[in-house]
Amino acid sequence: MRKLLILTANPKDSKRLRLDKELRDINEGLRRARHRDDFKVISRLATRPRDLRRAVIEESPQMVHFSGHSEGEVGLYFEDESGNSTPLTGDQLAGLFSLISQKTTLECVVLNCCYSASQAEAITQHVPYVVGMQQAVGDDAAIEFAVGFYDAIWNGESVKFAFDSGKLAAQFTRSISLGEPILFVGADASVSEDLVGSEKQSLTKSGKQSQKIIVLLSAYASEEKRSLRKVEISKIDDAVSRASIAVIEKDKSFPVYKQPLDKSGIEAGELSKMLSIVEPTIIDISGPSNGLLTLLLQRTVGFSDADDLIGDFFRVASKSTDCVVLNGCYIEAQARKIVQHIEFLVGIGQTLSHDVVLIFLNEFYYQLGSGSHIQRAYDIACNRIRRIGVEKPNLPAFLSRKQEEKRRALEEDLLKVEKKIEASPQSASLRVEKGDLLEGVGDHEKAASAYDRSLYIDGKDYKVWWKLGKVLVSAEKYSEAQKPYENALALHPECQDEYVISREYGLLLSLVEKHRSSIGLYKKSLWLNPRYRAANYERRKVYKKIYSDRSQ
Questions:
Q1: pTM of this prediction?
Q2: How far is it, in rounded angstroms, from Cα 159 to Cα 221?
Q3: Which domains does the chain have, with CATH numbers?
């Protein structure tokens, strides 16, 4: 069992602090934690210097937490025999922890008080991880930081992760001063990190695969919208239930997901704690366009770093969460911050009717419950609503961490190319490079504009005309795409490209109902490459379409 020793001191000649609340909230977090039997909290109140020495020697804790007052280089304030302030300097504390480190393996010390960074740095000589504050810290901020820090520790996370969790917990209370916490890392940090994470690692060695968890949240304020969310929750619950029954009947195996947890009524202040305990695989949030601000930051109007804070929230949650579903509260900028830390994100916009959303959710969660990969479940659900008339631009968005990393790298390259174009505005090749990068980030219209500008400078390269045609097709501008394909073929491309261009142009013409011209291009493609199966297959489809139209 690992021990946390909490020391508090609030001398009678100093400002009153709510140290009792901090102690109570830390203990409450332990009582709620999954690994509560693996930890023990020991507290010493109104601590004198001798109490500190005795407690550390007698209890041999792995973690030490001090709450009280500090004053930079002067030191931490403990109480003397009369209850007044008496300081211990950084050097004195370092000497004490040097002695203790010979007796027990200290993993972490937290100095949760104002201007304690200098003492924390001194202690780091003998303790792998030490947390201190560089500035003054508000009472509420200190409490929120401590609770967020230890909630993570109780659930088997590392000190570094717990530090981020504590910062985030305090930042979400926007009215309080955080005090710039800093984590000092000592030479033996890697050893300590293994010890801190050992509890969580042991859970994965039990041999039994645990079921995945879906958490359902709501950011709606009005009663009408809440009732609609209840319908969604019922639909999701039913879809997972049906999928679980199908899995049991077909494979005689355990259901992939537990029944979803409805946490739509949870208070914002409890959300982070709940997620650290439950460790969901899927987080489904339904709400208005400002829903994430309301649910996570308790704000209705955005501020300059709101998107970053929303991203930070999911960075802490990313240890267990594979996918976030934003239903109605999808904003691309926020989603891109989130998917830097979560593998997948599904974003349902405000353009879809509630009935269509229900169909999508039903199919998506049924596929997940049946064991499908998240992206496959998304694809099947999108195909389902496309069959009832939903246009491609209105489909739910799908973002992945890998795609986002690639997009950000492409955007960095794009900035470099823009600078080169400023220096050489008449360079056709740079315009093509810009178009390629824009197409890579999915901006089809701007990519088309870049290719068009390149062709204005030099229109003799069939490959650029071909690229322009393909990007216009991607943007579903079929009429505009015909001329670039025609020009590409007119420039006599190489044989290995010509039969591909002919087949693509044939497919384009079939989309705009020019079937006879389409057949001619397919024939040309097959004349150039008789084994080109795609052209042969698509040609047969067009023939069937022609004969079908005649029979009607």
A1: 0.56
A2: 36
A3: 2-203 (3.40.50.1460), 214-404 (3.40.50), 424-476 (1.25.40.10), 494-552 (no CATH)
